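Final report, Chapter 2: Outcomes

The project's central promise was a pipeline that accepts a single protein chain and returns its three-dimensional structure in a standardized token representation, suitable for archiving and comparison. That pipeline is now operational. To close this chapter, we reproduce one record exactly as it appears in the project archive, with the input sequence first and the structure output second.
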Amino acid sequence: MPTYPFVYLASQSPRRQELLRQLGVQYELLLPRPDEDAEALEAELPGESADAYVQRVCVLKAQAARARLLAADKRAAPILVADTTVTVDGLILGKPLHEEDAVAMLERLVGREHEVLTALAVVHADGALAEPALSRSTVRFASVGRAALQRYAASGEPLGKAGAYGVQGRAAEFIERIDGSYSGIMGLPLYETAALLRVARVEF
């Protein structure tokens, strides 16, 4: 059976790239084309649970990435796809639209626990796609005043991040406790990633 010296990473996240490098995995980016509506894949369905949502979006992203690879006529190799969401009170907190949206999201999280879910999938070189793996972590935020949240939002860090914060950045000062996978909260759970890439015969 052939092995592969690299994986295609279908993600623009610099954090996922950093985590792959931490594992020693070689990768090439496989990003959406300008004519693709990547944001549309992340639209919620009415009544959808966070678990179902993050896994469904991961599968859609994997299918889109596979089509992208075939259209580009690139060499065969597995494709790695992930999607992360934050959930509290049954709500799915996506990426904030602006600073005030970020503050509103963060105000939902302070002084309590929330869940961070990351779904992860690998499209094998032959196009086969297994059911996504799901990493579930619990994060507890301290009680933080609005002024501190506004300062954090003004830094620009929350923009582009599910739940309006990055665990590896300045928001660490708000986090009292984590139960689960730190790398999963960052957006790429390394234990599950390594297991899936070994099954896909990626060398690292």
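Archive annotation: The longest helix spans residues 50-72.
This record, like all others produced under the grant, will remain available to the consortium after the project formally closes.
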